[in-house]
Amino acid sequence: MSETISEKLKKELCTSSKNGLLKVDDKIIAESNSFAEGYKTFLDKAKTEREAVVAAIKLAEENGFCEFDRTKKYIAGDRIYINNRGKSIALCVIGSEPVEKGINISAAHIDSPRLDLKPNPLYEEIELALFKTHYYGGIKKYQWTAIPLALHGVFALKDGTVKEVCIGEDDNEPKLVINDLLPHLAQEQSKRTLNEGIKGEELNVLIGSHPFKDDKGSELVKLNILKLLNEKYGIVEDDFLSAELEIVPAFKACDIGFDRSMVGAYGQDDRVCAYPALTAIIDVKNPKKTAIAILADKEEVGSMGNTGLESDFLRYVIGDLAKMQGGDGTVAIRNSKCLSADVNAGLDPTFQDVMERRNASRLNYGVVVTKYTGARGKAGTSDASAEYMAEIRRLLDDNSIIWQSGELGKVDLGGGGTVAQFIANMGIDVVDLGVPVLSMHAPFETTAKLDIYMCYRAMYEFMK
Ligand code: MN
Ligand code: MN
Predict the structure, then answer these.
(1) Are residues 239 and 270 in the same domain?
(2) Per-residue confidence at 2, pLDDT binned at 50, 70, 90?
(3) Residue 416 confidence (pLDDT)
(4) How confident is the model at residue 374 (pLDDT cuts 50, 70, 90)?
């Protein structure tokens, strides 16, 4: 049967969108499945920004990266990393062109929403010991009750030593929990709005119930906990004042679906982009332009602080590289380009109302390019230029990367931001590119394996 004129014209002129799994061959599906295995392993050992930096350094060193030394001169093909306080890291592969000609930068963040312990967290109430927390990033607080939790982080002691803490991850280790009210007695609680269902000051973590055996004295459960912590980490109660301790879900990453096409895990925003950025820079061998993958901290609280991307860290990294070649860092910055790798909200079958379907990203439709973020009139967005969008379209299409365009929800409904704005402020062309996520910022988030692999492919082609 021959094609009609309108059918032919339609094919030539109209956008056609199709599920990525129907576009790719079995080889790509096998590659994305095997990429997801590495990703799940990474998720389980990198639940905090500090752990992600440790995992990144390990992988980098196994693949020929060395810590940057300002006194050394590096040549094309050399592989270096710059560790920013153990919470953020830049990995670079030196290009054959001078750094001044510009750098191809992939940026992702390695902090995720969680509950931080307060400076004075430990207390006892009715012979139960608990931790007070202050949540970090945007969470739906009720989601964090009645699930197994783990404690990760560090105690920094006055003598300069740092004690690493990780408890609740091994199957035989104890977990912690935040308890919720039983439905039988929740008549009053049920009248609260969902946002207030559990309040910030109700996110109290149960950590013990066994009193230290003594007929006299008070708060013996708390005392017993301190005794255990002292035996394990050599700390006293005051040491909580110089600690960074994070409560995270104790779940492990796993496949989702009878068809195993998806990944479920805590902290996929934004490790679902950080892992592709990391593995992509590892695979970059002899680039023309210098490539940098930066894994940043503090995105979930506005990229603030000296490990966030609003700081001058990236500027100094580029400056150091340019200076090493006798070049100028500001010239290098102005010639640089960036993919800001962060997640977008995938269209959820149950909550389609919040999305404008023509512009929402969908699972298995590939890596999502988000021209602008922001909220209510694009406020707070860096909005990538048409010219840069065209360049990225060309890059993706020329390399057969499955991709889609996306927007974060309906106009006037909400919105969000990424690190793109801070990189744009430096004068760098930047666009958001990442993976659609369901249940974003929940203790357990869902993504699709094909999209994750396409995120890796996009970042590799961009930096190579
Ligand atoms: Mn994010
Ligand atoms: Mn986020």
Answers:
(1) no
(2) confident
(3) 86
(4) confident
Distant-in-sequence, close-in-space partners of 213: CB < 8 Å, separation ≥ 6: 220
Q: Could you give the number of structural domains in the chain? A: 2
Report how far ligand 2's centroid is from the alpha carbon of 280 (Å). 22
- pLDDT at position 1 is 67
Same domain, 97 and 126: no
Which amino acid, residue 327?
G
pTM: 0.97
Give the confidence band of 215 by pLDDT, cuts at 50, 70, 90.
Answer: confident
User: Quick check: 151 and 246 in contact, CB under 8 A?
Assistant: yes
My answer on whether 138 and 172 are in the same domain is: yes
Say if residue 366 is in the same domain as residue 442: yes
pLDDT of residue 52: 98
Query: What distance in angstroms lies between residue 276's CA and the mean position of ligand 2's atoms?
Result: 17
Q: Which residues contact 103 (CB under 8 A, 6 or more apart)?
A: 95, 289, 290, 291, 292, 318, 321, 332, 335, 336, 337
How far does the centroid of ligand 1 lie from the alpha carbon of residue 416, in Å? 9
Q: Quote the domain boundaries for residue 361.
A: 16-112+266-463
| Residues 185, 41 share a domain | no
How far does residue 188's CA lie from ligand 2's centre (Å)? Answer: 31
Last residue of a domain, one of 249, 275, 304: 249
Distance 300 CA to ligand 1 centre (A): 7
Question: Does the residue 24 lie in any domain?
Answer: yes
Asked, for residue 335, whether it belongs to a domain, the answer is: yes
Maximum distance among all alpha carbons in the chain?
94
> What is the model's pLDDT at position 254?
98
